[in-house]
């Protein structure tokens, strides 16, 4: 089984630019109303769809309202990723920090209002 999460948004161009430039995602497929992206290692995909597109059934037409969704992206070196993303002048929503349960992470927000938690997991101290 393979999962592909999708977000319905009218910000396809901004979303494409953000995920390619900031997170180094690649394009698996795109057309005028749909964008399928993949992580740099091609292990996961994320899709974006224009709202109210006539080719789609009603369940896939309502736009995402900008709340209640987050993504977690695990990276090998969260400190390096933090510095790289800061150098791109991307606003940091949660500054780099260690959590008691072992995560070292920071968070950014994509053009759709989706929080993206960038994390390296470690055993709790």
TrEMBL record:
Residues 1-121 form the VOC domain. InterPro entries: Glyas_Bleomycin-R_OHBP_Dase (IPR029068), Glyas_Fos-R_dOase_dom (IPR004360), VOC_core (IPR037523). It holds the Pfam family Glyoxalase. It comes from the Bacteria. This is Putative glyoxalase superfamily protein PhnB. It comes from Larkinella arboricola.
